[in-house]
Design a protein that fits this description.
Elements (H helix, E strand, L loop, with lengths): L6 E6 L3 H12 L4 E7 L2 H11 L3 E5 L1 E2 L2 E2 H11 L4 E6 L4 H10 L3 E4 L4 H9 L7 E2 L1 H11 L10 H11 L4 H8 L3 H15 L4 H11 L5
Parallel strand pairs: 1-2, 1-3, 3-6, 6-7, 7-8
Antiparallel strand pairs: 4-5
């Protein structure tokens, strides 16, 4: 694609109004030509063959069709075609499939138009351009749940009373145990939660969901 030539763009979205709106916005930009839109995979195949776009901006969901599968097919048949996939979520599986398909950019559908325009004007041939928000969403969804330290029933009772602001003396009285025994439970709690004070123990336990707010 020559840098001084107008970039020809086709928009594919199963919502015709959305495709038209994106196309109109693209067409107003200097150096970019909006050649048309498609609302189905079948029409998109014909449009790519007839209109010869340089770039296809495609929604990942095309009704009963899969946008990433379509992108893979179009890129396979048109190696110079640059496809920008728009997604509504940061699903890791979709991102991996997009990368395998040879997609040039993976962006949020409700993100900045400037990001889409940038991907249109400066297509990456060396890798997949991913918006930071997509990566953050992936990390949030794929982050492992915190591992709850194994606490005994009695330790949980002591922890709950600590969270209510009670001290060793009052806790031992409530539970009918000696203060020495109660201190032993507190010591075990600090070790299991890997903290150095009762206040830290309560805060950490709340973070783990071991006790309520």
């Amino acid at each position: 694609m020559a840098l001084d030539a107008s970039v020809r763009v086709l928009v594919v979205d199963d919502h015709e109004a959305v495709a038209w709106a994106i196309g109109v916005a693209i067409g107003l930009e200097e150096g970019v030509t909006y050649v048309g839109s498609s609302s189905s995979a079948a029409h998109a195949r014909r449009a790519v063959a007839d209109l010869q776009p340089d770039v296809v901006v495609m929604d990942v969901n095309l009704g009963d069709e899969d946008g990433i599968e379509l992108a893979a097919e179009l890129i396979r048949d048109n190696p110079q075609l640059h496809v920008i996939v728009l997604t509504g979520d940061g699903d890791e599986a979709k991102l991996r499939r997009a990368a395998d398909a040879g997609v040039g950019a993976f962006l949020f559908k409700d993100g900045s138009f400037g990001d889409v325009l940038g991907a249109i004007r400066a297509p990456s041939r060396d890798g997949l351009v991913v918006h930071p928000k997509v990566l953050r969403e992936m990390l949030r969804c794929s982050a492992p749940a915190p591992v709850h330290p194994p606490l005994t029933v009695r330790e949980k009772e002591v922890l709950t009373l600590l969270s209510q602001g009670q001290n060793v003396a009052s806790i031992s009285g409530r539970l009918g145990i000696t203060r020495l025994t109660c201190r032993g439970y507190v010591k075990n709690l600090l070790a299991k939660l890997q903290v150095h004070s009762q206040l830290e123990a309560v805060a950490t336990a709340r973070r783990f969901g071991l006790i309520g707010p």
